[in-house]
Design goal:
Helix content is 28%, strand content 27%. The protein is built from 19 helices and 45 strands. Helix 1 crosses helix 14, helix 8 packs across helix 13 and helix 13 packs antiparallel against helix 18.
Length: 852
């Protein structure tokens, strides 16, 4: 029920309720007795009166009507009517007021007691002390709804019913509502969904906020706000009802509803007008049936039943929940609201996903009437629906141990039965709950289910948490429906040390096309079915999610080997040849050998040469090294090999200084240095080269000794939308463009650049100017109406061989540090929305000297 219409269910419930209370109101004594029993929560008296009047089958309907009506009377008496000229607080401001109230235990108790007893003075004093006078009626109505929420269960259910402490319920609601305040955009969406009575939007928003378990109490809070918001808008405000005449006024109202509910079409139109906040239509209908003096009461009644329907949809009983995939971490999958761009990154922050991510959703608890199972599958992104690519089950190693809920049970502690709980898992073999019993051996209950070869996960059916039973499966504490190890779907490894088929890359060089990520994008599908007959129950998909798991192996500033010297032998005056094994792979051109004053280097092709060295070799792939001297090293002289060890990281960040690079790491530095840098990651968020040291802030070239490098739009750039006719589209990208990184998507048609400025692909051609960013693509067939032409690419964040000049002429001779710092647009979706930790910077320290 994505957008609750004014359906027969709402109209039927209103009609049945009004008919029942009208029949009750025919007996003035019976009506007064029911009202008194309601206030006293006297179930025996309440049932006795209804039974005498042959209305006991309508107990719940009558009780709910009385509860709604008395809520209006109580808060009108305590706070007075809604003031027409007073600003109505937004849902965000109301949330802040609730948090303020619920966090003050002393005043919270006073407010709850005052609303319970109808003590106007005590309530006004507490609200005044909290400085929440503007929220008098809103807070009263909401607190009353919590106080009275269990009343009809008490009055209409056989046996005893546990009613939680109202102050504790308010406090718990305040904690849940406080979570909503952290996301203003999300709270605005909740307000819009409540006003529009949009179930799916509201459900998705509450799920995203992580308050599914408090759904019902939060929905009740939203309904209080919506009732006041809607009824203040559609009703001409009336003077307050005097408390002494409250019961008589309620009876008169019940009798006055008779003519309205006898005409179902008119009732239908009234509900429609209230739902749409159509003041003119609503006022006309109220006047037609002579209900002007009850305008607010009619609106409260209609709004409450409508919102009851909404909350039943948003917060269904745990055993009746329809399985659904709702979130990747805190990001909504949709519909109706999706937090994802067309290229699979998140709308907020343009983030791709990495590592292990939680796929979150709804499943029923153990009381579900039928055994159900669910699974996830994935496909390569296609851009069209249905996706024609092969469907692959997500199962086995793709799903690490995941807590999908909790087993709740009663256990014997040696004196009493007390509640206990343990996590319930998928793919955690051997997980077991031990439940001590009274006078019997402890129960051993498996608390694990598995993904079968096709990815199906059976939802646990444990449904009894009474003493001596095996427990009740609930979804509380779940990490998600599964955790997905995305490295099982995509892992890209690039060895740029020169020891593989790929070229070696050092600071200043452009990343070669074969070392660029393909930016994989996938479609994630969810489906649920019955276990017995495999009958489909539900299904939905996330059409595009960007995943990134890259590994780069490379050597930073090879002219400074650093503290990785390896002794491959010690001279004895006789031995000429020495061998050893370095950590591989070894970067060509980075190896230095020294035996006293005799030194040598590798030539980048595997040979080691130098004065006093007869021969030498280095195998870059295996690390095997051999050196033969013309004269044997003297006794005690160590034969040392210095070489930089390759670093392995998810990104490529390398900075150097041209003068040091060409001078072997020991060159005199002064005046102007030339900075070499290369930064690459498929989802680079920002990148800065900066100098640290005395007086750097006074530098003018570059200003402040810092350069911010250009970064592409990680969400991609839409250069046009198809209309079924246009075949050519143009745009301008952020420059400079990294050759080989350009990807164009228009539904199923894709094209790429060839590193020389041409764009090719099946059904597409075009050009890209890497320097100016101007792009033009032409399709063989015009993209259909509404199809976006999306360009993904990366900027070329490298300095080039000449480096970027840093003019240090006016800086004092001293020690300085050069940094290359970057951020990544990656998230795991865990814990909270936002990027994961950023990479450690690359840096190189150096000293300058005076003189020219």
């Amino acid at each position: 029920m994505s957008n609750i219409s004014v359906d027969e269910d709402i109209v039927s419930r209103l009609a049945s309720q009004a008919d029942a209370v009208a029949r009750l109101a025919q007996d003035s004594g019976g009506f007064a007795a029911v009202a008194a029993a309601f206030e006293a929560k006297d179930a025996q008296a309440f049932s006795w009166v209804l039974q005498r009047l042959e209305l006991l089958p309508y107990c719940e309907l009558i009780c709910e009507w009385v509860r709604i009506k008395f809520g209006v009377l109580r808060c009108t008496d305590i706070c007075g009517p809604l003031k027409e000229d007073a600003p109505l607080p937004s849902l965000q401001h109301f949330a802040k007021a609730v948090v303020e109230l619920s966090s003050n235990e002393k005043l919270l108790r006073r407010v709850v007691d005052a609303v319970s007893c109808g003590d106007r003075d005590a309530y006004q004093a507490a609200v005044d002390e909290l400085k929440l006078n503007d929220y008098c009626y809103l807070l009263c109505h909401w607190v009353y709804s919590i106080i009275s929420s269990g009343a009809c269960q008490v009055l209409c259910s056989p046996g005893s019913v546990y009613v939680p402490d109202a102050a504790s319920e308010v406090r718990a609601a305040g904690e849940a509502i406080g979570k909503l305040l952290a996301d203003k955009k999300g709270l605005d969406t909740i307000a819009n969904a409540a006003v529009a009575v949009n179930c799916e939007m509201l459900q998705s928003s509450l799920t995203a906020a992580g308050i599914v378990e408090q759904c019902e109490i939060v929905c009740r809070w939203i309904c209080s706000w919506r009732y006041v918001w809607v009824c203040r808008e559609v009703c001409e405000l009336r003077p307050p009802v005097v408390a002494a005449t409250g019961v008589n006024e309620a009876r008169s109202f019940a009798l006055a509803l008779g003519p309205l509910v006898s005409q179902s079409r008119a009732l239908h139109d009234l509900v429609t007008a209230a739902k749409n906040r159509d003041s003119d239509a609503y006022t006309a209908l109220v006047a037609r049936f002579g209900l002007e003096e009850y305008c607010q009461q009619v609106c409260a009644w209609v709004s409450s039943v409508t919102c009851y329907r909404l909350c039943t949809c948003v917060c269904p009983p745990a055993g009746q929940v329809i399985p659904l995939f709702t979130n990747v971490g805190c990001y909504l999958v949709g519909p109706p609201i999706s937090d994802f761009n067309a290229n699979g990154t998140t709308i907020s922050g343009s983030l791709a996903f990495t590592g292990t991510i939680p796929l979150i959703g709804d499943i029923p608890d153990g009381t579900a009437p039928e055994a159900l199972e669910y699974r996830f599958t994935y496909q390569d992104y296609s851009g069209i629906s249905p996706n024609p690519n092969p469907v692959v089950p997500i199962t086995g190693l793709m799903v690490p141990a995941t807590q999908i809920g909790t087993l709740q049970f009663m256990y014997w502690n040696g004196t009493f039965w007390v509640p206990g709980s343990v996590p319930f898992w998928v793919n955690n073999p051997g997980a077991t709950a031990t439940i001590p019993q009274h006078g019997a051996p402890a129960l051993s209950v498996p608390v694990n289910t598995f993904t079968d070869p096709s990815g199906w996960i059976q939802i646990p059916r444990l449904n009894d948490d009474s003493p001596g039973a095996t427990g009740l499966f609930t979804i509380g504490g779940a990490q998600g429906l599964i955790l997905l190890d995305t490295t099982q779907l995509t892992t890209e490894v690039f060895d740029l040390t020169g020891a593989s088929a790929l070229p070696d890359v050092t600071a200043g060089e452009t990343m070669p096309p074969q070392a660029l990520s393909r930016k994989p994008v996938f479609q994630i599908n969810f489906e649920a079915q019955t276990v017995a007959t495999s009958t489909p129950v539900s299904a939905n998909s996330l059409s595009a999610i960007a995943l990134s798991n890259t590994t780069y192996k490379y050597v930073r500033h090879p002219e400074w080997p650093g503290p990785t010297a390896l002794v491959i032998g010690v001279g004895n005056g006789t031995t000429m040849s020495f061998t050893g094994t370095l950590t591989s792979p070894v970067s060509p051109g980075s190896v230095q050998v020294a035996a006293g004053s005799v030194t040598g280097k590798d030539n980048g092709a595997g040979a080691i040469t130098g004065a006093g060295i007869a021969s030498g070799t280095i195998n870059y792939a295996t690390g095997a090294i051999s050196v033969t001297y013309s004269t044997a090293p003297a006794t005690g002289v160590e034969v040392q090999v210095d070489y930089p060890v390759a670093t392995t990281q998810p990104w490529f960040l390398s900075v150097d200084i041209l003068e040091l690079d060409t001078g072997g790491g020991c060159t005199r530095l002064d005046d102007v240095i030339h900075v070499l840098y290369t930064a690459y990651h498929p989802y680079l968020g920002s990148c800065t080269v900066y100098l640290q040291g005395p007086d750097v802030a006074t530098m003018t070239a570059p200003p402040g000794g810092s350069i911010s490098l250009p970064i592409q739009q990680n969400q991609g750039l839409v250069i046009g939308t198809g209309n079924g006719t246009t075949v050519t589209f143009t745009g301008t990208l952020v420059t400079p463009i990294l050759p080989g990184s350009v990807l164009i998507n228009a539904a199923a048609v894709t094209g790429t650049d060839n590193t020389s400025g041409a764009i090719t692909g099946a059904g597409i051609s075009g050009t890209i100017n890497y320097a100016s960013g101007v792009i033009s693509v032409t399709f063989t067939s015009a993209p259909a109406s509404g199809v976006q032409v999306l360009v993904d690419y990366n900027t070329n964040d490298s300095s080039g061989a000449a480096g970027q000049p840093f003019d240090m002429t006016d800086l004092p001779p001293c020690g300085y540090i050069l940094f290359l710092q970057a951020t990544l647009n990656l998230t795991s979706g865990l814990a909270c929305c936002g990027p994961i930790g950023n990479p450690s910077p690359d840096y190189i320290p150096f000293c300058t000297v005076a003189g020219r």
